[in-house]
Amino acid sequence: MKTYFDCDPVSYEGADSKNPLAFKHYNPDELVEGKPMKEHLRFAAPYWHVMRNVLGDPFGAGTAQMPWDDGSDSVDNALKRVDVFFEFLHKMSIEFYCWHDRDIAPELNDLAASSKALDAVVAKLKDKQAETGAKLLWGTACLFSHPRYAHGAATSPDLRVYAYAAAQVKKAIECTKELDGLGYTFWGGREGYATLLNTNMKRELDHLAAFLHMAVDHAKAIGFDGPFYIEPKPREPSTHQYDSDAAACLNFLREYDLMEKFRLNIETNHATLAGHSMEHELTVSANAGMLGSVDANRGDTLVGWDTDQFPTDIYLTTQVMLVVLGMGGFTTGGLNFDAKRRRESHEPMDLIYAHIGGMDAFARGLKIAAAIRADGRLADFVKQRYGSFDSELGQKVESGKCSFAELEKVALSGGEPTLASGRQEMLENLINEFI
Ligand code: XUL
Ligand code: CO
């Protein structure tokens, strides 16, 4: 069979290798904290960026060379892409992947025709999964590209659009189940508004919640057990998106009684667009027991939009892996590279280099995070910082059994508290000992 990526499968050669087509740090079977790296990291490739992103930007057309693609919306072309994608997964040793319905199959003239096309591609994906062992990390429906969703999908003011979106999600969940997908994602790019002048926010949120409850019911009806993920993002394409950050999503899920089936899928570039660090968003999610999966990428501080670049910053990957190890690792989720090459990196081989970089950066982050945990000084410092709450009185506060009157007595008799240093700089030095 013709191959499209001009290299052997990428393998681990160690930190001294100068081979740009080798892993320097990602050694899939190497044990970290007693578990193989590949099981910690659970890398996934996104079909939309790997196969469908033409690398356009708001100022210019696409540049990506896709010698396998005839540029048509035919089912044949869609089926051909599947072979190329699985060649890519194999060469990268990436075991998981993710898709939107409209990435893998074309949107045709009517819904029934689009669904039929989807069935044909899903059948081929199923065969390829069986042949290679690759697994679907999550599926999702694209409810943001087509003009019908200009005013939103599950928050559209037009019930006919809402129904269309429901039908699309119903089918996408069924396809996810057909492929033994481990989860299903909702990212609401158009679920928000451009102006509040024309928007009834309360009604839109009620509609969104009703939509998600119907999704939960349908998953139950067809026996799809995996979690649903909500992926927070504050804006782009909408001016404001309702799933703006992890805290807003958690509030929404709690308010509408959706906590049970949902987890969060946290993406780096969305965190930073929300004015948070990735570490913050992951910590908020993990503290609520709701961190499900990660879209691993990064933004560019000098460019204002969601550039979806590959993660290469070891400090960032260390922070991510500290939270992931801290919560005991992924269960259904993983690290999906929701990342694309720069417009100038237009050759198929650039996909290989890009993913090698992301995988090596996370392998290093994993090893560093594990070393920091084994060392223990960081965790000890944080534990001691809250030590006063380990006292009898502190435990009374934490268990909700204390009163203001009791605390007032302590304050009156204790004098002015002497504060301990937060030692931020010392801790930053400590982290750098490992990086
Ligand atoms: C958009 C984004 C999406 C979701 C899936 O910013 O991250 O690709 O991950 O719809
Ligand atoms: Co994403």
Please outline the helices and strands.
Elements: E1 11-12, E2 22-23, E3 31-32, E4 35-36, H1 37-41, E5 43-46, H2 47-52, H3 75-92, E6 96-100, H4 101-104, H5 111-132, E7 135-140, H6 159-178, E8 183-186, E9 192-193, H7 201-222, E10 228-230, E11 240-241, H8 246-255, E12 262-267, H9 268-273, H10 278-287, E13 291-295, H11 314-326, E14 335-336, H12 348-375, H13 377-385, H14 392-398, H15 404-414, H16 424-434
Parallel strand pairs: 1-2, 5-6, 5-14, 6-7, 7-8, 8-10, 10-12, 12-13, 13-14
Antiparallel strand pairs: 3-4, 9-11
Bound molecules: D-xylulose (XUL) and cobalt (II) ion (CO).
The site of cobalt (II) ion (CO) has 5 residues, from loops.
Name of the CATH architecture of the largest domain = Alpha-Beta Barrel
> Could you state the order of secondary-structure elements as H and E?
EEEEHEHHEHHEHEEHEEHEHHEHEHHHHH
| Total beta strand runs | 14
Low-pLDDT segments? none
Number of domains: 2
Main sheet overview: 8 strands, parallel, barrel
The distinct bound ligands, ions and cofactors come out as: D-xylulose, cobalt (II) ion
Mean pLDDT: 98
Strand content: 5-15%
- Helicity range: 40-55%
How would you name the CATH homologous superfamily of the largest domain? Divalent-metal-dependent TIM barrel enzymes
Question: What class, by secondary structure content?
Answer: alpha/beta
Largest beta sheet: strand ordering? 5-6-7-8-10-12-13-14
What is the CATH level 1 assignment of the largest domain? Alpha Beta
Rg of Cα set? 23 Å
